[in-house]
Design brief:
Rossmann fold; 5-stranded parallel sheet
Length: about 160
């Protein structure tokens, strides 16, 4: 009698990741304890101006996880749920820092579940990291400040966009 092997549990972790922070890294690390694979998916939104180009963001995050076979880093320019289905993800991973994030994420999770059946799971940001956001890191970079305490160790992040 063969043992039943469950399907691989894959979660999509979508975002702009401009740049990827230690808050994002924490969510990926914690998500890996629940999933077999995580696809970090950089969403392309032509109406949003990015600090780092898509290619640079892909390069930085792939470099960070180059030795982790359970993580893939990709980009997409479609609905998140369509991309999740394309890569075989049954779940969407999101992080929340505050009650304001919760309201936003719940609405999107409900819509995604209704349209596709894909479940979203939310991980609360670790308390020591709740103040960190890509927006704040971009602002620090813009003014030439050191951001090393806000981005993952080992991630090569240039001081200048596309440098």
């Amino acid at each position: 009698m063969n043992p039943i092997i469950p399907d691989k549990r894959t979660a999509l972790f979508p975002g702009t990741f401009d740049p990827f922070t230690i808050g994002h890294e924490s969510l990926v690390r914690r998500g890996l304890s629940l999933m077999d694979e995580i696809v970090i998916a950089i969403g392309v939104n032509e109406s949003k101006k990015s600090y780092f180009s898509l290619d640079k963001r892909l390069e930085m995050i792939r470099g960070l996880y180059r030795d982790e076979p359970r993580i893939r880093v990709e980009s997409y320019d479609s609905l998140t749920i369509d991309f999740a289905q394309r890569v075989g993800a049954q779940y969407i991973l999101r992080g929340i820092r505050s009650v304001f994030d919760f309201e936003y994420e719940k609405t999107i999770a409900d819509m995604n579940r209704t349209i596709s059946g894909i479940e979203t799971f939310l991980l609360f940001t670790e308390p020591a990291l709740t103040h960190i956001s890509s927006t704040h890191v971009r602002e620090l970079l813009h003014y030439g400040r050191d951001v090393s305490s806000f981005v993952p160790k080992g991630m090569d992040i240039p001081a200048e966009p596309d440098a």
